[in-house]
Amino acid sequence: MNVRRRLIPTAALAGAVTLAATALTACSGAAASGGGKDGKLAVTASFYPMQFLAEQIGKEHVAVTSLTEPGVEPHDLEITPKQTGRLAESAVVVYLKGLQPAVDKAVAQSGVKNVVDAASLTELEAHDSAGHDHGHQGEGEGVPGHSGEHDQADDKSEAGGDPHIWLDPAKYAEVAKGVGAALEKADPVHAADYRKNTDELVGKLTALDTEFNDGLKNTASRTFITAHAAFGYLAERYGLDQEGISGVDPESEPSPARMKELQELAKKENVSTVFFETLASDKTAKSLAADTGLKTDVLDPVEGITDTSQGSDYFEVMRSNLKNLQKALGTK
């Protein structure tokens, strides 16, 4: 029996080979860029503020996971072996050096090529537990700070820069630009989208900065007391005076002298409210409020979004913070 074979024209065969080669190259490029699920860029973030930036800038092109689960206080996070393995498989890691020692160590050992340290993308400053600026990181002598005594030898700000840069929208915008550039480098195919998304996010942060500046311009008091001295940058940006019960590290315990000092300061500065937060214990803040006859309210450091947070994302929580500050300080 004769079997008739159809011959493929040379031009068609060449076209098929070219198409296959192009597809193979595209797949190889995706693999080289560290594709995650569904070919997306695999990004690991250390905690919520870094996760938010990666998601807002990367959008549909990235698969973002966070090392810090919702509801977990990030400062003392311990890394599991599973997380360490996932970290090593990432195409991009976004973290903030100096905030989470376990993360710093894991990132250093991960071997990931594209690592973004948010602390290197803006200028850090050292704030004492009262939120006063001690100068820029790396400078010699700082500006004299608060005179009160407090036993906080492990206060991170005393040894270097206060890491809470995301609570200043202007500084957070600087970090956003650096994260956007890193995503462009790791995934150049979608560079135009990352640039567009970065510009949009920076625009929103600039608008938020304006809201805070206008909303806190005229208040009866300029001093606020908070359980965790996370708001040094915010206070400095908008001309306020943060008085923290604890230091930059929320686990540090205030001394009896510090508690007495805060009681006296509350009377002197016409303070109406003691702020506590959602992820750390509110026991000390409420105790101080009870002793001084002050009200309590929430000032959220936006270190993680939970069901008890004042909003569903960074912008909503920050706007809730603004309203609570206005109420506590007495907006004129």
Q: Mind explaining what this structure looks like?
A:
The chain has 332 residues and is α/β, with parallel strands linked by helices. The protein has eleven helices and ten strands. It has helices spanning 10-32, 48-58, 81-88, 101-110, 156-159, 169-186, 191-215, 232-237, 256-268, 283-292, 314-329, and strands spanning 41-45, 62-66, 92-95, 114-117, 125-127, 133-136, 223-226, 241-244, 273-276, 295-298. Strands 2-1-3-4 form a four-stranded parallel β-sheet, with helices on both faces. Strand 7, helix 8 (232-237) and strand 8 (241-244) form a beta-alpha-beta unit. It is globular. It starts with 9 loop residues before the first helix and ends with a helix. The relative contact order is 0.12. The model is unreliable at 1-33 and 134-159 (pLDDT under 50).
User: How much helix is in the residues?
Assistant: 40-55%
| Average pLDDT | 81
Note the run of SSEs as H and E: HEHEHEHEEEHHHEHEHEHEH
**Measured on Cα atoms, how large is the radius of gyration?**
25 Å
Poorly predicted segments:
1-33, 134-159
Share of residues in strands: 5-15%
What summary fits the major beta sheet? 4 strands, parallel
Structural class: alpha/beta
Number of helices: 11
Q: Briefly, what is this?
A:
The chain has 332 residues and is α/β, with parallel strands linked by helices. The chain contains 11 helices and 10 strands. The N terminus is likely disordered.
Present the secondary structure layout.
Blueprint: H1 10-32, E1 41-45, H2 48-58, E2 62-66, H3 81-88, E3 92-95, H4 101-110, E4 114-117, E5 125-127, E6 133-136, H5 156-159, H6 169-186, H7 191-215, E7 223-226, H8 232-237, E8 241-244, H9 256-268, E9 273-276, H10 283-292, E10 295-298, H11 314-329
Parallel strand pairs: 1-2, 1-3, 3-4, 7-8, 7-9, 9-10
Antiparallel strand pairs: 5-6
Helix pairs in contact: 2-6, 2-7, 3-4, 6-7, 7-11
